[in-house]
Amino acid sequence: MFIRKQQVFLLLTFTVCVGVIIVINTQHMNLIFQTEVHQRGFIRYVNNSIKTSYMPNKIHYVCAGTTGRLGNQLYVFASSYGIAKRSGMKLVVGLNPDTLSQTFQIEGAFETDWGLCEASKFINANKCCQVANQVYKVRLNSTVHIFGYLQSYKYFTEYNEEIRKYLTFKDPILRTAKTKLNTLLTKKYGKNYRNRTLIGIHIRRGDYLRKGKQQFGYKVPSEDYFYKAQQYMEKRYKNITYLACSNDIIWTKNTFRGQRDVIVVPTGSAAVDLALLSLLHHMIMSVGTYGFWAAWFINGTTVYYKNFTLPNSDFAREFDKDKLDAIPPHWIGF
Ligand SMILES: *[C@@H]1O[C@H](CO)[C@@H](O)[C@H](O)[C@H]1NC(C)=O
Ligand SMILES: *[C@@H]1O[C@H](CO)[C@@H](O)[C@H](O)[C@H]1NC(C)=O
Ligand SMILES: *[C@@H]1O[C@H](CO)[C@@H](O)[C@H](O)[C@H]1NC(C)=O
Ligand SMILES: *[C@@H]1O[C@H](CO)[C@@H](O)[C@H](O)[C@H]1NC(C)=O
Ligand SMILES: *[C@@H]1O[C@H](CO)[C@@H](O)[C@H](O)[C@H]1NC(C)=O
Ligand SMILES: *[C@@H]1O[C@H](CO)[C@@H](O)[C@H](O)[C@H]1NC(C)=O
Q1: What pLDDT does 97 receive?
Q2: What pLDDT is recorded for position 57?
Q3: Which residues pair with 169 in a beta bridge?
Q4: From atom 9 of ligand 1, which residue's Cα is the shortest distance away?
Q5: Within the chain, which residues score under 50 in pLDDT?
Q6: Which atom of ligand 3 lies closest to the CA of 237?
Q7: Where are the domains of the chain?
């Protein structure tokens, strides 16, 4: 799903740069701060804000910055929300890029003033898709800046309901999605399309087929996976209509050619199409964070592609052996 090698290197480079800044600046600091600064992983901006931020009884924050596109940003938000709650701390999310506040009624979920994070301890979740213990619960009495993709539902699963409230789609987005869905169904079945079981199929291809990503270990499922997933759904549900969303419409049309009850959804904005998927009953995923979030919103039966990392690849090493941190236990794998 989730990470590129270049990004890993960027992250390391950034960490090293910060280290350099710290070393340069320690000369100006008093002894107490110096010992703290020399601990591995600490980030301190050396100016007056340090002293006030480390006074006892001050509010401490969990700080995290959004990264990538919608699916990745949702993970950073939900996971840092869970971490902050679990740790009894307040949350600051640096919205850059900011797709979240344009898409959801997310106001009030966190502070956005990054100045609150000026003097923070830097904590790294090294693997995109495994829970890092040092991040899962933050024990230190200081503001922490959590760095990483945080792509495990385990960071936030016990706060699903609260998070769901903040992830209510903005009205115009939801309205557009409802109209789009209604139009597609009416076009296929006429006005009388009640009693259809609506199942989303998300087919991520496109960028996942690029050489760099393939070498890193990304895989995409073949037609057979989708057919198996459909067979499974058809054993459990009747009167199914599939709504297939993809960044490879041609492949998708070819794959489902001749299947009467598949609607290939014309590609809209990421937000509208996620809202559309959220209105359905069940989900067939392929790969990628966007599909995870569609399944999360639907919260019905989810079928996922089990073998989504190349064995022994860098990408595979981002996950635990059975991908238990990334895949909720009740999902059905093929
Ligand atoms: C402290 O340093 C940070 C980072 O360099 C900077 O953003 C902030 O404005 C500084 N604060 C003050 C009060 O100088
Ligand atoms: C954090 O603060 C509390 C109360 O002030 C104290 O009991 C606890 O030992 C502190 N923990 C750490 C890790 O400093
Ligand atoms: C399937 O749809 C038909 C009408 O098209 C309806 O009579 C039937 O009750 C539906 N079955 C289920 C299980 O909803
Ligand atoms: C839809 O299903 C319900 C029972 O599940 C049935 O009462 C109703 O007649 C069905 N509607 C259509 C249009 O088939
Ligand atoms: C899905 O629904 C179940 C039961 O209704 C609930 O316990 C769970 O938290 C929900 N999951 C999500 C992701 O909302
Ligand atoms: C998973 O995919 C790899 C190729 O990427 C293949 O060698 C392996 O046999 C597959 N494993 C299963 C269980 O299908």
Answers
A1: 86
A2: 55
A3: 104
A4: 115
A5: 1-56
A6: 13
A7: 56-166, 171-333
